[in-house]
Design a protein that fits this description.
alpha+beta, four-stranded mixed β-sheet
Length: about 260
C-alpha cells in the first residue's frame, strides 16, 4: 500500500463521513418537515450547514491518514535480495557448517565456515554476494575459515528484518546457524524454512545432503505482544486526533464568524 493509496482511502473516508453526517441530519429533519416546518426554517444557512460537516469529515480523513501512515511505517514489508550469498566449496569436501553472527538489523555480519573431510591443499572456498562481490575464504588445515557480509539484512519493519543465510554449493550436505544480538530473536513462523533446533542462543537449520539450501531467516526484537508497535500506533492516533481537531477548527471557525 503506497502513500497514494492511503491518500485515496482517506478521501473516501472524508466522503463517507460527510454523506453519513448529512444523511443523518436530513433523516432527523423529516419528522419536523411533516409537522409543517419548511426546509428554509430548519437550514437557515445552507453554506454554513454543509461547510461545518465538511470540516468534520476532513478531520476524520486526516486522522485516518495519520494512523494508516504510522501503521505502514511500522510494517514496511520489503522483500529481501533476489540472490542470497553463495559459498562454493571445491575439492574433497565433506559436510559444511556455516555460522553467522548478527548483532542488529542493518549491521554487518561475521561468519565462520567449517568444512569436514579436509585434505590439505585440495580444498578451496569462495563467497559471492551482491554487495561484496566474489572473495576467497582462507581455510586453515582444519577446514575452518572466516568471512564478513557488509549488508546481509533487508528491512522488514521497524522491529524486524529479513536475513538471507548463505547458500552452500559443493560438499556432501550442509547446515547453517544464526546467532543474534541481545534482545533479538528469530521469528520461527515467518522464517522459511523454520529453524530445526535452538541451542545456546543459536538457531540452526539442517539442509538436505547434496542440495543447495537457501534459508530466509526473519529476525527482530524480542518484544512481547508487539508492545512497542502498539505504543507507536496509540501515539499516532493521539497526534492524528489533535491534528484533525486543529484542521477542523481552522475550517469551521471562519464560517462561524461569518
Amino acid at each position: 500500500m503506497t502513500l497514494t493509496d492511503v491518500t485515496e482511502a482517506s478521501l473516501y473516508v472524508v466522503l463517507f463521513v460527510f454523506l453519513t453526517i448529512c444523511g443523518s441530519s436530513l433523516l432527523l429533519m423529516i419528522p419536523k418537515r411533516r409537522k409543517g416546518r419548511r426546509w428554509g426554517e430548519m437550514v437557515t444557512h445552507p453554506l454554513r450547514y454543509f461547510a461545518i460537516r465538511l470540516g468534520i469529515s476532513f478531520a476524520f480523513g486526516c486522522m485516518f491518514f495519520v494512523i494508516v501512515s504510522a501503521a505502514l511505517t511500522l510494517n514496511q514489508h520489503r522483500p529481501p535480495e533476489d540472490r542470497p550469498p553463495v559459498i562454493t566449496v571445491s575439492g574433497s569436501a565433506g559436510r559444511t557448517v556455516v555460522n553467522l553472527d548478527l548483532d542488529e538489523c542493518g549491521d554487518p555480519a561475521t561468519g565462520t565456515i567449517q568444512v569436514g573431510g579436509v585434505r590439505p591443499g585440495a580444498l578451496a572456498a569462495t563467497i559471492r554476494s551482491e554487495d561484496d562481490g566474489r572473495r576467497p575464504i582462507k581455510l586453515n588445515l582444519d577446514g575452518v575459515g572466516k568471512f564478513t557480509l557488509s549488508d546481509p539484512s533487508a528491512r522488514r519493519s521497524v522491529l524486524s528484518c529479513y536475513l538471507q543465510m548463505p547458500v552452500i554449493e559443493g560438499g556432501s550436505g550442509s547446515s547453517a546457524s544464526l546467532t543474534l544480538g541481545e534482545g533479538m530473536e528469530v521469528d520461527t513462523v515467518n522464517s522459511a524454512p523454520s529453524p530445526s533446533a535452538y541451542l545456546d542462543g543459536r538457531w540452526s537449520w539442517d539442509c538436505p545432503s547434496g542440495e543447495p539450501c537457501g534459508v530466509l531467516a526473519t529476525a527482530g526484537l524480542a518484544i512481547e505482544e508487539g508492545v512497542q508497535q502498539v505504543i507507536v500506533l496509540v501515539l499516532a492516533a493521539v497526534f492524528g486526533a489533535i491534528i484533525a481537531l486543529l484542521i477542523g477548527e481552522v475550517l469551521i471557525e471562519p464560517i462561524r464568524r461569518r
